[in-house]
Each structure stands twice: as C-alpha cells, then as structure tokens.
Amino acid sequence: MDSTTVDSLKSTLSDRGEVIETNSKFKWNVANFPDYCARSGERLLSPIFSSGTNGEYKWRMELYPFNYHNADMDYLSLYILSENDFEVAASYELSVLDEYSSTLNKRVTNNQKFSKINESWGFHKYIAREDVLKVLKKLADDTLTILLELSSVHVPDDRRQAKIPGHYSISSIVQRNLLLNYERLLMDELYCDVTLISAEGKELRAHKAVLSAGSDYFASMFKHDMIENKKNLVTIEDLDHDTIKELLRFIYAGKVENLEKVAKSLYVAADKWRIEELMNLCSDYFCRTLSLSNAVDYMSFGYQYHIEFLKNIAKKYIVCNVKQFVDQPEFTSLNNEQTEIIFSLFLELVAQTK
Predict the structure, then answer these.
(1) Residues of the chain with CATH 1.25.40
(2) Which residue among 12, 98, 156, 337 is least packed, with the fewest CB closer than 10 Å?
(3) Distance of CA 354 to CAs 121, 130, 261, 314, 343, Å?
(4) pTM higher than 0.70, yes or no?
(5) Which residue ranges does the record assign to the BTB domain (predicted)?
C-alpha cells in the first residue's frame, strides 16, 4: 500500500472525465486517455464524489499515467484521495474495466486510514501502461474506465471527538504550529549551537539536535568526537549558501522555497546528507517539469551523479518525442563530450523500433 506526499503539482489536471455512482460503486471515465500517455509528468484528478448514507464522505480518484514514483515509468499509478477535513477509514477495491466491462487487475485494501484532507493511498505500480492501451484499442473509443468499490467507510473511534469545522483537524493544527515554531527558531537564530559555512564563506546558524534528528549524516557527526563537533563549526565546501539555506528549511519546517532554482544541488545535498524525503521531493520535481527544453540537461545531470531513474525517464521522454526533439536547440547542442548520452539514446531508439 502506497501513499503520495505531494499536495499540488503544476501539471495537475482536475475534474477530468466523469464519475458515475451505483450502489457504492464508482466508475471514473477518462476520455482520450492515450493523449495523456503521450507526455509525462501529469496528474489526473477525478471530479469530487460522495459516499455514506447522507453523502458525508468526499473523495477523488488520482491517476498518474506515467507513474507517481521515480523508477517505474512504464506503469500507471492509481490512488483514492480524501477530500475530508477529518480522519476517516475505508476499505476499497480498485479495478480497470476491459472491453467486456469485466474487472482487470483488481487491487484490494482493507481499513485504510486517511488522516487529513488531500491525503491519498493506493498503488504506485498499479498496472502496466501498455496493458491499458491494449484494452483501449479494442474499444470503440479511447475512454479508460476505472472502477472503485468503497465499503466500511467510518470515522475511527479514537477520532470521533476530534472532528471540528474548517480545513484542519486538531492534529493538523498542532503539527502546523510545531513546524512554524521550528522555522522561527531557524530564522531568528535562537539558541543556535553550530555554524555552517557555505562554499562562498557565508555562515548559517543552526541547532545540533535538530540537524541530528533530520539527517543521519549530522547525527553521526555530532555523536562522535569529531572536529566539527568540538569547534561547533561545519564547513561545506561543495554547497552554496542558497542550497544549504533551503536544506535547513526542509529539515526544520518540511518545506522548500524556490525549488526550481536549487532542485539539482538540493538533490545532491540530500543524497550526501541522507535525507530521503528531500530526495523524493526533488525527484518529483524532475518528473513534473521534464520537457523537451530540459530533457538533455536532466539526462546529463543523471549521468554526472549516477541517478538512474532520472537518466531513464529523460531518455524515454526524448525517444517518445524524438520527432519534436530533433528541432530543439538541445539536440543540436549535443557534442563529443556527451558520447555516452548519444549512444544511450541510440540504443533506446533501436529498442523502440524492434
């Protein structure tokens, strides 16, 4: 069972298709689905639909034609998303309907808790996109139909007293305030006990305890009798000031500002400092923003830092859009120093034509 963590994407397409309800079964019809398979990085959301005796529970279905996660770009990702501002639990089945309206690839989940609004649960690697396209070829049109069967929808007993009007549940308010307090500690430099020095020689003040909690790299550094721990000074020669600042913001407050400016350097830093959640955030950004204008740049970055998923998705994206790509300046700018990239693209093109 998998969960998505990104609340909003630039390429989100809301209210795609229609949802038809019959006896707690919801059919989501997505017209012209092959068109969405011609480009990566899109997130499709169904219209909001209701369940429960009085329609008190609100939901959407969430679909990524090119996979939410990083490594399995040949698969669709499929989830159910809560539009409830309180914790709710549900059992559900997700299926694709074939040309005979029979269920294909049924996946079942029992008593899944949705803790907050916009939280979604489902399957990163739901079904191979090729299998879906084969089904659509047998239909009169290109409409993909997904069937959701909901059952045992309820508010958990320990949360019945926590429901309040408004956008946030009590636990969400507490969590938000805690993050704001931690961010204030960082911004105001209150009670700091360590200084980080960037590649430009600029200083940033922080707290050993918070850094250790957010990064195994720092936890190991401050746990042992290392010179950085003794002097309360950490020199980071390979990261600039802006990257370190955003990395600290993520450790303290769980967010990043100006990601488009620091995504690549932030990914490298997160890898070095062993912050998996931040690596995932940057990976999502690469997938969402992949285009003809940056595919070569992303692929080069993937080769430089041995990022397999980025090499693969950029390569497949270029090959899938090769006719448009050859007209791009990025294609003509390929040079002898990028022999490995050129050869890799050639092999992928050969594989696609077999």
Answers:
(1) 290-353
(2) 337
(3) 37, 15, 39, 20, 17
(4) no
(5) 192-260
- Architecture of the structural domain at 172-279: 2-Layer Sandwich (3.30)
pLDDT in tens, the chain (354 residues): 565 654 444 467 777 889 999 877 999 999 888 888 766 668 899 999 999 888 889 999 999 888 665 556 788 899 999 998 888 988 899 999 988 888 888 888 888 889 888 889 988 888 888 888 888 888 878 899 999 999 888 887 554 444 444 444 445 567 777 888 888 888 888 899 999 999 999 999 999 999 999 998 899 889 887 888 788 899 999 999 999 999 999 999 888 988 889 999 999 999 988 898 898 888 888 888 888 788 888 888 988 888 888 888 887 777 777 767 666 666 656 655 555 665 566 566 546 555
> What pairing do the DSSP bridges indicate for beta strands 75-82 and 120-128?
antiparallel
Q: Give the domain 18-154 fold.
A: 2.60.210
